[in-house]
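_Backbone structure tokens_
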Amino acid sequence: QVQLVESGGGLVQAGGSLRLSCVASGIAVNISTMGWYRQAPGNKRELVARITSGGSTNYADSVKGRFAISRGNAKNTVYLQMYSLKPEDTGVYYCHAPFGFTDYWGQGTQVTVST
């Protein structure tokens, strides 16, 4: 059974940093693309960043230059390093891994940025 488990969310002041981690288990091969989405209250879930197994990345315009996505040395791990956090970065962050014909999602981790 495939599971994505996130960690690393929390409460931080504006200008601070956080690092999110995600591990996908239950898949024997490397997942090609992994990413992070977020959802703020009343908003749709939106892409934050994604990365391929080859290291190609893309970011939402709102986080470019502040966030960095990376793959871990362990299979099917992905990180999101967040710098210069803003109150508008507040939301639930979800790890995402499309594999086969299925989109797999983590349970989400809350990130709250206070003023």
